[in-house]
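Field reference: sequence -> structure
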Amino acid sequence: MDDGSHNQPPIKMGQVKVREMEIDDIPKVFHLGEKLFEAEGLKNLYRTWDEFEVVELYLGDSEFCLVAEIDDELVGFALGTTISKSRSAWKYGHLIWLGVAGGYQRLGVAEKLFHKFHSLMIEDGVRMLIVDSQAENYPGLHFFEKMGFTNPIEHIYLSMNLTADHLQKRRYRAKKGKLVKKK
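Structure field:
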């Protein structure tokens, strides 16, 4: 797949402008995320990329929703939130989504977004920053390690297909195996 990176002129970090996301950025962020976070490639994520995800994060914590631009073109975003537990003095920051357009990856855009997000978290009194990723997302895991994240904890998410066809097959197997309750 050609991501267009060979067509991009070299960029300087001064050209990358990171700012707080605005309401007019929502469609651009959503459409970029659609390209980056395709459902087929992220089958076991507990969060799914959709327009409600972007709007909810923007409405709930707009100060932690950032975009990166080069020459007024949106090329990346970082969306996050904070979590405070009532029985804990700790406040947690959660970087939920970080995405950079294909032609601008590995050029420092994600780093600039992350550093701004990190600064905002510190200003807000966050004591621990968390991020999650699929285990096979090696570029993402490498990036987060480079940014200072340590001690990865493996967590397993199970899924169950609840489409009508799947449920019908499951009921059939249960009847055939006499696993159905008798009336």
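Note: The CA atoms of residues 82 and 93 lie 4 Å apart.
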